[in-house]
Amino acid sequence: MKCPFCADPNTQVTDTRENEDGDVVRRRRRCVKCDKRFTTYERIDLKMPHIVKRNGNRTEFDHAKLAGSMKLALRKRPVTIEDIDAAVDRIEARLLSMGEQEVPSEKIGELVMKELKKLDKVAYIRFASVYRNFADVDEFSEVIREVQARPRRSKTGKAGPDPEHDLFGS
């Protein structure tokens, strides 16, 4: 580490401490040449992958854009902000764990649909209808059938659709 006062590259670490969370290391250093002391901080630097869009353009990952897309699909749905934030965090963690420098936008869309399907079926269908750009009503109907195909337990304990959680509230 170069001294910020005299630019000499010879410095010594005199003290090292981690913060409570263990994600930042604070180091006190002393310059061998000018004997001045200074503090440095060491943090994890995670880089999100770049997104490769369908047209081949590349863009930086945007946390706010991802969260905004999910919030738009979940607008007026009974899902808490905390649940949305947790879903966004899971998507980001998955992207980081892939270890790729670039990820196709289609992969992110699939991760979003997977999270929305767990959070709210109506939001999942909303997002899928825009994301998949359905050509006709049959494609739209297929997604609805896919969501409805899973048997659920109603309040009576019987398998089948729960009227209170029916996709269209009917």
UniProtKB/TrEMBL annotation:
Its cofactor is Zn(2+). The keyword Transport does not apply. Residues 161-170 have a biased composition (Basic and acidic residues). Pfam families: ATP-cone, Zn_ribbon_NrdR. A zinc finger (unnamed) spans 3-34. Residues 49-139 form the ATP-cone domain. One of its GO terms (biological process) is negative regulation of DNA-templated transcription. Belongs to the NrdR family. Negatively regulates transcription of bacterial ribonucleotide reductase nrd genes and operons by binding to NrdR-boxes. This is Transcriptional repressor NrdR. The gene is nrdR.
